[in-house]
Amino acid sequence: MVDLNARVDLNAYVARPTELFARHVGGLGRRGGVLQTRFERRWPSAERALRAVYGDRLDEFSERLVDVLADFAKQRSDELQDLDHRREAEPMWFQHERMIGYVAYTDRFVGRLDQLGERVDYLRELGVTYLHLMPLLQPRNGDNDGGYAVADYDRVDERIGSMDDLEALASRLRHEGISMCIDVVMNHTAREHPWAIAALAGDEVKRAYFHIFDDRAVPDRYEQTLREVFPDFAPGNFTLVDGFGADGTSKWVWTTFNEFQWDLDYANPDVFIEMLGVMLRLANRGIEVLRLDAAPFIWKRFGTDCENQPEVHHLLTAFRALTAVVAPALLLKAEAIVPREDLVGYLGAAFAPGEPERTECNLAYNNQLMVQLWSSLATADGRLMSNVLADMKPVPHDSSWCTYIRCHDDIGWAITGTDAASVGWNQFAHRDFLNEFYSGEFAMSYAHGARFQHNEVTGDARISGTAASLCGIDDALRRNDDAALDAALARLELIYAVTYAYGGIPLIYMGDELGQLNDVNYASDPAHADDNRWMHRPMMDWSAAARRGAAGTLEQRVFSSFARLGAARASLPELRAGGTVDILRQGDDRLFAFARRHRREDPLWMVANFGDRTLTIKRRALWTHDVLPSRCAISGRGAEFVDEIVTLAPLGWAWLLR
Ligand code: OTU
Question: Whose CA is nearest to atom 12 of ligand 1?
Fold first, then answer.
């Protein structure tokens, strides 16, 4: 194991890169001075992280790193330098209560990048200040895992536009107050990427970009401890690929995901430098947030599951420090859907008591909250969620969660044996229940989802389906049951209201704001037929969106609830990220309650009833930090705060203030 906090003799190495950098930027006047200050501030962290991974080999490539940074710094536009200065003046900008995210596929949302500007007003109605456009760099042809198999990091998928369109859009959105986020698929490339093609053709340098083995000996050793991410359509973690070199021999290539996605080998510093270049090129096009896809997988170690290894954190720390020299406005978001003790480390939380916090990614997905919201709805019980979230380590004050309830992926039930036991449940029985419930197999269920990646051997499965369909909107409409529809809408609002209050950037997944149902025709595209995640990646229904202004329509009911939540959130500085979350337990199984607080400011409380009967909470039961709530800022579905009592109807919720 590499020691995360290994001491290195900084004096021996720091001087040289610092001087080298000074030579590059020395002639740039005042700007050069700023760059030099940033370099001197960030390099020690990068240096220490890279030395922990590469040891003395760092001395062989540190000069190249310095060159890369200086080149990109010189190319950064005036507009983006202004942005850098603004962000440096307000480094916690992304924690603001105004931050609300929207996540969409460009083609499914509007068609092409140059058409997206027409929809800014729509996003504004929702209060959106952050737009994540799903993978949009040039993918391989045919099945490309929704764009997660990139054939060229320097080109935009030609079906949606060009790099220039992307740059123009990022700039336009920025002027509208919207920061753009895109994916960097950093763990793997498509097998059609020029690096992979060169490796196949016998180029030894490029072969060393990947994990390629002549026979099964090494892969078999790794397989003993690896899990399968897609056991259904991509079993195993290695793929036998024919056609290597002049004689066309077959070799085993590491492919964690689909067989056309070749894992990159970050033990090779060339790969690190290439990916740094990819990130900085996108930053210099005006992208403000990079979603680092499958980040936990970028380091492999025998005898482990090859996820969340210490080197992953060193590498991310180095990416953060180095990108911050050129583009301090850039945020890195870890896509790490991992157990909570592993998850908080991506935001720089200490790994063990007594260890220091680190500066790693700015953002990460709070998948624990997401899973628990669905689990609580299905069980009509807030206890497991309360236990799990109370057990989560706080994250560093300068980072933030992305809170969400749906994304383009399946929902994996990351609930451990210990978690389940904390409320007297069995982990596997609970997982099976959730799968039965959300796939609609369970007799009493209102959900219309489907099982994803059912593994007959382990019994494991995950869930696909849109939020609306999982909340029962589909079911209520089919049965033409108004009361059921009310309840379904209340579920959707309730879980989104938690994501708007819990701390972080809440993400609206495209279509949820209109209650869009599953795409029942997803399988008619042969490239999507095997992968039912496409059922919750529908085309935007603009005719449904047009009904958002028509009183009494489903779309109006759902959309207005999102707009109201967004407006309320933006008016409550208590809801900005940072600060603390205290889970409040009242002895009522159905209740989920927490208080958010920044230093000595007054807290904001959220109380939510996941049960199917009305519940009451005495005001004094919400006592925290020596204060009590006295008024309601906003509430949903029958919530009242009268005298000393908060009354919550089933699925009712409220945000309370002092
Ligand atoms: C990600 O998901 C993407 O979100 C998926 O859409 C891609 O298929 C995949 O990477 C490959 O690029 O395991 O089940 O901890 O959970 O990277 C989906 C991170 C996944 C993993 C995540 C991955």
Answer: 148
Which residue's alpha carbon is at the smallest distance from atom 13 of ligand 1? 229
Residue ranges around ligand 1 (CB below 6 Å): 145-146, 148, 185, 229, 257, 293-294, 296, 335-338, 408-409
CB atoms within 10 A of CB 4: 20
Strand partners, 400: 363
Spatial separation of the C-alpha atoms in residues 305 and 294, rounded to whole Å: 14
pLDDT of residue 458: 86
Instruction: Please report which confidence band the pLDDT of residue 455 belongs to, taking 50, 70 and 90 as the band edges.
Output: confident
Q: Is 207 exposed, middle or buried (0-12, 13-18, 19+ CB in 10 A)?
A: buried
Q: Could you identify the atom of ligand 1 that is nearest to the CA of residue 407?
A: 4
Is residue 262's pLDDT more than 80? yes
**b/e map 278-291, b = 16+ CB within 10 Å:** bbbebbbbbbbbbb
Q: Which residues contact 226 (CB under 8 A, 6 or more apart)?
A: 237, 305, 306
Q: Mind listing the pLDDT tens digit for each residue in 116-158?
A: 999 999 999 999 999 999 999 999 999 999 999 999 999 999 9
User: Which of 143, 193, 257 should be mutated for ligand 1, with most atoms under 8 A from CB?
Assistant: 257
- pTM of the full structure: 0.96
* Cβ–Cβ under 8 Å, residues 313 and 4: yes
Report pLDDT digits (tens) over 352-366: 888 889 999 999 999
What is the four-CA torsion angle of 612, 614, 619, 624, rounded to 10 degrees? 0
CB contact burial 192-204 (16+ within 10 A = b; e otherwise) = bbebbeebbeeee
- State the Cα–Cα distance between residues 633 and 455, nearest whole angstrom: 46
Active site positions, annotated: 293, 335
The residue count for the chain:
658
Q: What is the DSSP string of 475-544?
A: HHHHHT-HHHHHHHHHHHHHHHHHHHHSSSEEEEETTGGGT----TTGGGSTTTTT-GGGGGSPPP-HHH
Sign of CA dihedral 257, 262, 266, 271: negative
Calpha distance 531→528 (Å, rounded): 5
Helices and strands: H and E segment counts in the chain? 22, 25
Grade residue 643 by pLDDT with cuts at 50, 70 and 90: confident
The number of beta carbons lying within 10 Å of the beta carbon of residue 164 is: 12
